[in-house]
Design a protein that fits this description.
homohexamer, 300 residues, alpha/beta, seven-stranded mixed beta sheet, three-stranded antiparallel beta sheet, 11 strands, 45% helix, globular
Chain lengths: 300, 300, 300, 300, 300, 300
Amino acid sequence: MSDVDVVAESIESMKVRGARDIAIAAAEALRDLVKEGANLTELKIAGEKLKAARPSAISLPNAVDYCIYLSEGNEVMPPEQFKEKTVSDIESYLTELNTSLERIAKVGAELIKDGETVMTHCQSDTVASIFRKAYDDGKKIKVLATEARPRHQGHLTAKILAEYGIPVTLIIDSAAHYMMKKLRVDKVFFGADTVTVDGDLVNKIGSSQIALAAKHLDIPVLVAAESLKFNPRSIFGRDVEIEMRDPKEVAEIPGVEILNPAFDVTESEYIDMIITEDGVMPPAAAYSLLREKYGWEILK
Amino acid sequence: MSDVDVVAESIESMKVRGARDIAIAAAEALRDLVKEGANLTELKIAGEKLKAARPSAISLPNAVDYCIYLSEGNEVMPPEQFKEKTVSDIESYLTELNTSLERIAKVGAELIKDGETVMTHCQSDTVASIFRKAYDDGKKIKVLATEARPRHQGHLTAKILAEYGIPVTLIIDSAAHYMMKKLRVDKVFFGADTVTVDGDLVNKIGSSQIALAAKHLDIPVLVAAESLKFNPRSIFGRDVEIEMRDPKEVAEIPGVEILNPAFDVTESEYIDMIITEDGVMPPAAAYSLLREKYGWEILK
Amino acid sequence: MSDVDVVAESIESMKVRGARDIAIAAAEALRDLVKEGANLTELKIAGEKLKAARPSAISLPNAVDYCIYLSEGNEVMPPEQFKEKTVSDIESYLTELNTSLERIAKVGAELIKDGETVMTHCQSDTVASIFRKAYDDGKKIKVLATEARPRHQGHLTAKILAEYGIPVTLIIDSAAHYMMKKLRVDKVFFGADTVTVDGDLVNKIGSSQIALAAKHLDIPVLVAAESLKFNPRSIFGRDVEIEMRDPKEVAEIPGVEILNPAFDVTESEYIDMIITEDGVMPPAAAYSLLREKYGWEILK
Amino acid sequence: MSDVDVVAESIESMKVRGARDIAIAAAEALRDLVKEGANLTELKIAGEKLKAARPSAISLPNAVDYCIYLSEGNEVMPPEQFKEKTVSDIESYLTELNTSLERIAKVGAELIKDGETVMTHCQSDTVASIFRKAYDDGKKIKVLATEARPRHQGHLTAKILAEYGIPVTLIIDSAAHYMMKKLRVDKVFFGADTVTVDGDLVNKIGSSQIALAAKHLDIPVLVAAESLKFNPRSIFGRDVEIEMRDPKEVAEIPGVEILNPAFDVTESEYIDMIITEDGVMPPAAAYSLLREKYGWEILK
Amino acid sequence: MSDVDVVAESIESMKVRGARDIAIAAAEALRDLVKEGANLTELKIAGEKLKAARPSAISLPNAVDYCIYLSEGNEVMPPEQFKEKTVSDIESYLTELNTSLERIAKVGAELIKDGETVMTHCQSDTVASIFRKAYDDGKKIKVLATEARPRHQGHLTAKILAEYGIPVTLIIDSAAHYMMKKLRVDKVFFGADTVTVDGDLVNKIGSSQIALAAKHLDIPVLVAAESLKFNPRSIFGRDVEIEMRDPKEVAEIPGVEILNPAFDVTESEYIDMIITEDGVMPPAAAYSLLREKYGWEILK
Amino acid sequence: MSDVDVVAESIESMKVRGARDIAIAAAEALRDLVKEGANLTELKIAGEKLKAARPSAISLPNAVDYCIYLSEGNEVMPPEQFKEKTVSDIESYLTELNTSLERIAKVGAELIKDGETVMTHCQSDTVASIFRKAYDDGKKIKVLATEARPRHQGHLTAKILAEYGIPVTLIIDSAAHYMMKKLRVDKVFFGADTVTVDGDLVNKIGSSQIALAAKHLDIPVLVAAESLKFNPRSIFGRDVEIEMRDPKEVAEIPGVEILNPAFDVTESEYIDMIITEDGVMPPAAAYSLLREKYGWEILK
């Protein structure tokens, strides 16, 4: 069993999970293959195998395609040089993957000013890193957190940040609009499940309502998303199929249908900027980022 | 101890509660006083006593002031005629109070067309009456209900309507925007805690977010509110003081502040029509209704 | 066969048509009945008979209900006085009906300033009267007229106004937005099929698109509508059932479905003022007009 | 008479027409000139001659300028290598031109989901190709088509699609807003006459009204436009001079001025995405596409 | 020379000025005429004479027409009773005129909450009264005042309020938007030159820009206007002719045209409520107020 | 004392001022250093020294960073080639700096059509150059200029343009909205203090109000800004610290606080296009311009 098979299996069985970890595992497998002397054709076959392991995780095809793309750039080189340069390119990419969280935290924290009240919804490591970095930089910030029914991951967000020393106020999801106004929230930060080509955000159910309220109240909405989360195959958020989770997470009432969508879609016009490891950009630049990272072809 | 004292005490001790029941008790007490021969001055003194019993319930001063207003209209009459006419006027008002729920149900149900999907938030007897009436009229309707954290009164709404035979879908509060779009909701119905002079609505926390989403999706928002709920002393919804309930209803997390507002404010521009026992009116007519019912003076 | 039967038959057979003529015929029949000594009960029976003659013409129930409403106001009088006062009240109403077109023309013309370019869609006698009155008052106006597919009634509008001496420009319906901007139209005037309780307008198909464009270009939209056109039983324009006309008016293409709606709905937020025989009012006052003319009851 | 002269003449006399065919003819003429050994200066002279043949067709200068741009990239090479590389570059561009329609059809069809109702205005081969591709891919789509007065090209659109087996509904242009709402259109597709630097669309008269209505109803508007249609010299749609066609196409009415604009302008904020042979992009990326294809210089 | 002639002369020569003082003088002249035994016809003649004295001051025809309107209500009475009742009615109106400023101050002050920052533009006695009343009521308010070029009446506003003890911040007119946001203004208060039938406000030049900014920032705009300022003959603000003042107030620069408009128009959709001596009402109620005060006829 | 020290001192002491002159001086100093054989490390040290001379002038770090960026591109070359290529690169940049004003004037003038009325606020050499170029090109333009309290630089703008022969109308700042509508302004042109990464504009106090009014009236807003004015370190306009100038420029009133902000922020959604020496671009492209000029790194 080759390394690629092992990694594919680990991803499929969810031994490896989380957008970044999956991407790193796949890129490492491809790098090792190059090291072993694989040519471009062999790399592509391995790439397809890896991508088939979890088709729904956008970071997986993104990482594989990017490695192939890097390899293609070296195609004209003689074999030895190809190997050396491609390994080096993929290593650079791996470094980028490994440091992206830290870089987003740094960039995001610069967007928070001393004394500001920031808001978030549900639980996002990326957003939490930004808040902690701003706090570490000596800024006196306050956080408004929603609880995020049905699984209340927001309680965890509140707990973690409070333990870190940051003042946190927790509210029910329905109180978002009222409390944003009352507490004069300065900025809203969301994590991301996926960012589409036209800059729409697919994120935890409830995000789109908060974004509507933020727009109404003239509060900027910032999305923290590694470029791995950008999906070159998804044009409009509104066309994304949303997963329905187990209704029992919500309630069980005889005769009553219960629907439990996991995510919703925040349209790009409700988002001010997206914070990536490559800098801060407007949602309209999602297209350019994808073009630059993956070339014209990927959008065709 | 006079009847008025007894009634005032019942209201204060919450033996009598609910907007309509409080209004009826107060009006009956004043009617009885007139029957016993009280003049206008005595009525006013009794009215003040009643109003002091529960200052925060808007239906109480509304009912008392309206009875006084009716009495003033008869002021120039000789005592016997004053008594007779005033008792008759207050009786008419009592009839109106007693039948208002039924009338709102009838008017509201006419606004629902066969085959429509309607949505509501939290639990409102008035809205439930409208849905039942539409169903009784033979219309095939579907209801989308939110659960209404933290106390989940929406579960009760769903249960009651489902038992009545109406198809109900229950969702978490955060899913309102997404599911309204997906299920193509035709109309949103809210009950009311208070309607202000400029037509703003104070209602269960979360209402304003749903109204923002409805506006975004071009779905009409209808408010079912007896005229008792209109507050002539409250001009802007934004100036209304919102009650903060026990944080423990939400959660208990060491080091985390929890805020639990009971209501929020939906601005009149997000409301299409208000259904009262006196007919359906645009929110801009709240002012006219108050003028007509209570005269110029009450707004000064 | 009574007079009422004759009139009902004339309305049913469309010998009498046009919103105003139908209303006049019905009011005259009821007035004659009162002259012959009919009491309120008999009047109501006759009214129901008349209303049944053409249920879809809103001016018919409006006129009948208004005559009944006037009669009810005299109910407490002795028979002879009832007859005299009711006949007089209905006569006043008839005078109002007979002069309403002229009054709307006068009021509407005052809203046009010398040198302005006004626009209209399709063909409306009421709007044409306003333009002619402004022209007769010595104002140099220009008219932009759409042709109104499929039957091109706008060609008639253009022809009539041009013959009257008013400079007219005719365009296809699709050019409305572009030409409104290019010719810097000052005001748009629509006639009305129906005005609903919340001030929505049901009018010739295409009106709503022109209103959207006018709003986008900050051009006021004015509706000329006798109070007869206000429908107390229709709350929302969006709930009005729109008549589908013969597809052959549009085209015949094998295998292609052709739909030919006669009207569309312009929501009240796209209308600035409504010109009635009772003066100029904002759409939010449609409710008040109906209340004032027909009382609370009619809206319940 | 050189090849370039022949081609210029063919374009001028309209023997060659259609945006793509003109571009291909011009590019082929320039390629042949390079094959014959022309240097950059000679190419530029030939390019100016070609561009003069039909100054109003934006695809002509776009194609010529792009070929010159490609040639300039090879300027530093020795003559033989210049010839070889430049011929090869222009051949690639010709391949792109020849396959662009097919590529747009493929990309556009991916934006249509099974079961959706799509709408178009007037007649566009590009849009028709997209609909046919979606149908060929097995998607059950419905098409709503406007007739497009005055020449009713929409009848042709309806006929062609119906014969292909796609269910089509045809309406008059004025019914666009009402029927989009009633039939719950999912997406609107337009072709393009020109796309400007700021992403505005110049297209068949009536497009802008449909786009206003689509925005009002939250329906995405998609423009299918080869990059040839992007005009680097036209910044704002509002500054584009619109051609007025023969008034007799509309009607002839004595004393009535008839204006018959061929196109109108849809501002970029009413457009969601533009589908080009290079992928799907937001209108704000029109600027980047032009930059990338034609360099900084062309925008100065 | 009759009293009416004397009063007319005083108004014409501007011995009497200010909206309220003119109205009082005219009403007193008519009351005296009734006392002397004038009948309705004579009153109307006198009314026309008074109105001719200063046609541009809206309070003059408003006051005269209202007195005539009151007189007409008593027309059917025998002469002596007519005199007595009409004098009494006009006296009541005079009382209302004399106390209106105080009543507006009281109502307006109730709209300011303790601790709020309020903003005003230029100089208005009515608005200053509201601020002083709020201050007298013990509320800690702050005032943001614009200077109101070219005559800097805002300096006077600032001076007067500061001397009264109210903290005032003065800014240039251009800083309104920026400082409203920075200082988190809670409410904007304007006086009024005229209010039109559709609720538009004609007020000091610059008001409309502040209202645009307030809307953008979700800050309520309140207009303090006695009902005398409502103009039943002016439908749209946009049709009101604006006075151009002496350019030298601004500057003198050779070769440069200087335009110095005195007022501008704030459209009703930018106004939240109007504070009158009859209570607080939405701008859409301007029509109802005019109807109620002056009857249907005045709007025809 | 080295050249770099001299230049730094000149900038610090404001002997050298103006965004462009500062940039040129810094770039020349660095070029000379390269000529003298400095390596990259030495260049970076010199760059930091220069940047410290006036930290608040965005053109200074922009010019220095860009020279460093150019140098880094040549880092791998042998010393002599590094010197030659880097000097040449910086020379090209200096040419660009020297010609940028002229190029902006040319591009900007092409955006003005014959017969248009254009508006500007305060005094900007760049905008004045555009107007003069349009006038020199034979276009009949009119200019509407605001006076720009408190220092009335707009008087200078008016004077200069009038002397050049261009018809100018001067108004007070408060009259902007009203006069833009009355005179039917076609386009608004602003200069720039700073453009942020998300395309917001920091410019003379009052600009944002004019932009709000322009948006309301559908008038395009164009910003003339050399790329030197783009600040890669400033993401949101709303986070920019605005300088407060001496209150005495406005007035001195005992007891009154006077605040005198120098600039305000116009959000990117109120800006149509930005005119740079590199062409015309939408504000969303500010990010791309910065990326292209300064690379990914600078935005991290």
